[in-house]
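Q: Could you fold this chain for me?
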Amino acid sequence: MLVFIIGTQLLSVISSVIFWWLINPKQRFSRISLILSVFVINNIFLIYGLSEFWRERFHVYLVVSILQGFMLYAGLITAVIAIIYTRFFKRKLNNVAIRGFAFAVYIGIISLAVFNAYAPVVHHLTVTTNKNLAKPMKIALVSDTHLGRWFGNRQIDKMVALIDEQSPDVVLIAGDVMNDSTDAYDKTNMHEHLSALKAPLGVYATLGNHDYSGNEVAIAKAIDRAGIQVIDNKSVWLDDAVLLVGRSDATDPKRPAAADLMGDIQTDKPVLFLEHSPDALEEIKGLPVDLHLSGHTHGGQIFPLTVLLKWFTPLVYGFKEVNDSQFLVTSGYGIGAVPFRLGTRSEIWLITLQST
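A: Sure. Below is the predicted structure, expressed as structure tokens.
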């Protein structure tokens, strides 16, 4: 916690420097007022956020911090452009113009981050298996919808429309369906919208860490009432052609090992394994699993986490084949704690599973 608080104060210093340069206060009183204002406002949001750590209030603080981080990005981009301009063209920069450019870059970064969060894209992937599969199966994969205050009915409707356009045989949701509780879900009647999500072979979900937040029973019931079957630690046959195995999140104290969950499965038909996190790559790769589907990482969601997470996670994002198993990690459809994505984009995967 101490490191976190020190980091927030460092961010305040950076913001103060940028505001100083942008506003260029002439009087001593104005300079002192500017610095104090940035520190006071930042710490008010910090105290407000820590009063409900990692819940709704803390998410508000994260938004403020990320906006300050984007300010740093804009400052760095402006500095680089200014250096290149002065060295190549041998001209002095107009102070008003360079400040206007910096502001435009800042607005551009925010706009891009919001666009990436709320303008989803559909990715297509064909996965082959040497097991028996009479006809290809189309699977829509969604993860991390984080239904809540900043992500609700409009995004659900868009998700349903995009999935319907792909005409999948089955829809799978890899956890974090809701953002910690059903409060916003119930208050805005998201049930009516989520229940429109349908597929011929059904819609299935596993719960994620934000679903296992003390409200997992209420969340599971709400999902079930929407016509989505929660398959935590269960298996189900899809058209008697593909075996779908679901597992609860690692935050579930009763979560079984993957090998125990699969038991003595002996089948010449494809096996799908659905869970929230991709951390089980080493555990899964020795099992008769054809395709492991997960989310959780958000692909890092915001640079530089998009790069840093690769140092700590076996597979942060995308497709990978290990031994005889194949793995797909989606960056997710929703936004989590903050309504921004920079370096990632909200997405849905349409997977075609077929025999070789």
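A (continued): The chain is about 40% helix and 20% strand.
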